[in-house]
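Work through this protein:
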Amino acid sequence: MAEEARSAPEIMAYLTKVITTKGPDDYVAAISKVPRHIVRIYAIHMCVCEVNNGGFLQLFWNSVGVLVPEAIEGFKTIGMPTMAAILCEAAQPLGDLYPRDRDDRWDALLHASGLNEAELETIFKTEDNFYIAFVKATKSLPFDDLNDQFWDAVKTENGGFETAATRYAQNPFPLQ
């Protein structure tokens, strides 16, 4: 496809057809076929959507969490270093080498919770909803404050996320 992208939504429409977040291997293979500047638009957009919808825990919980390294790079590239720094801080409990695999992220979050195996087992046995159990098990992690900081930065840093992303996307990048 040799069209030129004019807006972040146009880029997203294209990318949702060519990039999968269903697993780390498929994701890495898909983004290797897409120009890096286009991957950045996809990653920052998906990151903002996830965090705005359910916070950092949701981002790391869902398959979309595979793209956090590209989102950090993307925020820096579009002139939003505060958002990149907040995302880095939120990802810190997952370890120095970011786990792209969803199950590995879950394990890292539970480990970072500071709860022992018996405490985790009690939470997961007494809660009917697996995600709610996970929320309870990870409540000691600093996501609430970081969510607030991120949501503020989305609105204010570099003219706001939508403005900064659109400005970046309006460069005449080919979608190929």
Observations:
- The two ends are 5 Å apart (CA to CA).
- Residues 8-99+143-169 form one domain.
- The chain has a mean pLDDT of 90.
